[in-house]
Amino acid sequence: MDHFIYRGGALHAEDVPLTEIAAQVGTPFYCYSTATLERHFRLFEEALSPLPHLVCYSVKSNSNLAILKTLAALGAGMDVVSGGEYRRARAAGVPGERIVFSGVGKTREEMCLALEGGIRQFNVESVPEMQALSQVAQAMGVVAPMTLRVNPDVDARTHEKIATGRREDKFGVPIERAREIYAEAARLPGLRVVGVDVHIGSQLTELAPFEAAFSKVAELTRALRADGHTIERLDLGGGLGIPYAASNEVPPLPTEYGTMIKRVLGDLGCEIEIEPGRLISGNAGVLVASVIYVKEGEGRKFLILDAAMNDLVRPAMYNAWHDIVPIAEPAPGAVRDVFDVVGPVCETGDTFARGRPLAPLAEGDLVAFRSAGAYGAVMASEYNTRPLVPEVLVKGDHFAVIRARPTFDEILARDTIPPWV
Ligand SMILES: *Cc1c(COP(=O)(O)O)cnc(C)c1O
Questions:
Q1: 267 and 243: one domain?
Q2: Is 270 a catalytic site residue?
Q3: For residue 162, how far is its CA from the centre of ligand 1 (angstroms)?
Q4: Number of H helices, E strands in the chain
Q5: Which residue out of 61, 106, 164, 204 has the highest number of ligand 1 atoms within 8 Å of its CB and is therefore the one to mutate?
Q6: N or C terminus: which one in the chain shows less Cβ crowding within 10 Å?
Q7: pLDDT, tens digit (0-9, with 9 covering 90-100), for 114-124
C-alpha cells in the first residue's frame, strides 16, 4: 500500500496534487511520500517484535538526507556500503552505534572513518578484508566489532544482476569455510566477533530462499558457539521484494517474513538485524515526467517523455517493469492505446516499456512511474548533460524540494580546462 492515489481526477502524493509540484519544480522529478516510508519501516518493526532487533535501512536504495532523517526519527539503524553513505547516515543524525558497514571492497580509509566516528559492526566479506580491518583497528588502538558475511549458496530466484548468495557470486565467504575463518578472526588482535551476516539478493518474491539461507545461519551459529565464539547478533540482510506490476504475483509481507525469522532463528537468543531498502523506499516514490511528443513509428506509437534512462535506469539495466499511470485520471472505460514509452537519450536502451497499453496521452500530459523510490534517484546520472533529476518530499498537505535540479551553469562549472587547452 502507498499514498499515491487519485482524488478529484488527479493523482496525489498524500494530500498534494502532483500537478502542483510539477508546476513549481518542472519535470522530470522524483516525489516521495513520508507516510509511506514511515508505514513500511513500522511494518518491519512490528514484524520482528518482540525479538530484540534493529532495522537497518539500506541507504543505497535511496540515500537523500531528508529520507534518512525521516527514518532515523523513527529509530532506524542504517546499512551503508561506502564511506560516502556512512557520512550521509551520520549527517542525518544516526549515531555510529546504529550503523552497520557492508560491501566487498571497503578501503582502509573507509574503515578508519567508521572506527573514528563509531560503528556498530563491519560485515566483513573476505579474509584479506578481515586482516586489513584488524591492522587498521590495531593501529588506532581500538577493536573493530565484526560479523562475517557468509555465502550460503542459495539461489534467490531473482534477476541475475541482483542475486548475491550463490557460490559464483562475489559476495561473502563460502559458508563451509566460515568456521576456519572465524577461528582466524578470533586470533587477530584488532577484531571482536559479534555475529554472523548473510544477504542473498534483492527483489525476492518468495520466502523459501530466505528460509534456506537462515536455516544454514542457525546451524552455523550453533557450531560457532560450540567453537567458543560469542554470536550475539544475526544480520539477515535485506532483499524482500515489492509488487512492481499491479497485476503480478504478490511478494510475501513483512509480517510473514518476520514470522518465519522467529520460527527459524527465534530460539538462538540473538539480536536480529535486517537491512531492508527497496521495501521501505520503493513504493514510497514516483518519477513524474511529461510527454514531449507522441510519434507515429513503423507500426508502433512512441510516447517520448522528458525522463530518460539517466533518470531511472532500472528498465534499461534490469529489464524492470514500472507501472506507468497518467496524472489525470482516465475516464472509466477509456479505450487504451498501445505505446512504446521512451526517453530522449541517444540509446535504444532508453526504453521504459514496449507495447504498453495506456490511457490515451498527448503532448504536455504528465505521467508517473510508480514504485520508483528505490534504486531510482540514487542511480541517476547526467548522461547527455541532462541535469540530475530533482527530488521532492511530501508530508500531508505540504511538500519540499529535498534535492534541487542543478543549473546548467553549475553543471558546466564542474569541468575544468587545463592551461594547455
Ligand atoms: C542492497 C543491499 C541491501 C538492501 O536490499 P533491498 O533489496 O533493497 O532490501 C541490504 N544489504 C546489503 C548488504 C545490500 O547490498
A1: yes
A2: no
A3: 9
A4: 12, 21
A5: 61
A6: C
A7: 999 999 999 99
Ligand 1 neighbour 278 (Cβ under 6 A)? yes
Whether 163 contacts 140, CB under 8 Å: no
Which among 233, 263, 280 is the end of a domain?
Answer: 280
**Which range marks the domain in which residue 251 is found?**
34-280
Looking at the chain, how many residues does it have? Answer: 421
Pocket of ligand 1 contains residue 199 by CB under 6 Å: yes
% of the chain with per-residue pLDDT over 70 = 99
Grade residue 1 by pLDDT with cuts at 50, 70 and 90. Answer: low
- The C-alpha atoms of residue 277 and residue 84 are separated, in whole angstroms, by 17
Strands 337-342 and 351-358, sheet pairing: antiparallel
* List 31, 112, 270, 346, catalytic entry: 346
- 99 Cβ contact partners less than 8 Å away, ≥ 6 residues apart: 56, 77, 78, 79, 80, 86, 89, 90, 114, 118, 119, 120
* CB 106 near ligand 1, within 6 Å: no
Single residue among 243, 265, 280 that ends a domain in this structure: 280
158 lines ligand 1 (CB under 6 A): no
Claim to verify: residue 46 and residue 118 sit in the same structural domain: yes
**Residue 100, pLDDT score:** 98
